[in-house]
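quick one before i forget lol
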Amino acid sequence: MAVSYKDYYKLLGVDRGATVEDISKAYKKLARKYHPDLNPGNKEAEEKFKEINEAHEVLKDPEKRKLYDQLGPDWQNGQQFQNGQGFENMHFNFNGQDVNGSDFSDFFESIFGGGGRSARGAQFGPDPFGGFSSRPRRGRDVEAELPLTLEEVMRGGKRNVTLQMPHGPKTLEVNVPAGIRDGAKLRLSGQGDPAPGGGTPGDLFLRIRYQPHARFRVDGENIHCDVALAPWEAVLGAKVPVPTLEGEVELTIPAGSSSGRKFRLRGKGLGTAAKRGDLLVKVMIRVPAELTSDERELWERLAATSTFKARA
């Protein structure tokens, strides 16, 4: 089988005369950068992490490095080549265990015949501070959205959530903190993807998404709503019902309130019990679209006798 040459020195950013200490330093620096725990869900970082571990596993070992270097001076051309002569039956072990499998590249296997899984099925996980560790890998984290109404956000409490996971639907009981912010994440430990080889499952992250509301608009922890007034309520003043997330309350409208005036109801917004936002109510004056003859006569008398100048 023809496979492409992999330049292990280039992968680690060292020259071919680098010492074992230089190789180890370069490896640790790159391993920290590309470690899967620091790059969740990043396939490119995961592949890079595998490559630098493969390169380090060869170059840190004098015997493996010697065999690798015997590929010859044409390594610079990245040429295609057949399985190396004399390397077909080479095997090795990590931490005293024979290994085989698919964690390493075809190039690696063509030279050493090895891989990254133990005979017991445990998958070897790269250790950013040196070599490989025999602990099973952790499963992938999963992220999903959790839509909530504003009333559910205000109340908080337990909710049953059904999610479509890679291995089928999963129903979970989730405890939603009262007043949780839009875009915040809830972490459910161990509810992500299962791990290969029996390792620890990943975590599930639920991102909170506020659903649009028919009456309220959200502005951080404050919410806004509009309340309609009849012209005479705005002029004479009135007590009108106003919606809140916890039910209606009565709001006193002072006489002479123009359309667009805002009233603040403190502690009627979103947030925790210790620090809730406010409800901002904007009054909007509505006029009748149709008038009876008596109503028209009254409006005409008002227009004729009033001294109010709307555009003064």
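fyi The helical segments are 8-12, 20-34, 43-59, 62-69, 106-112, 150-155, 231-236, 293-305.
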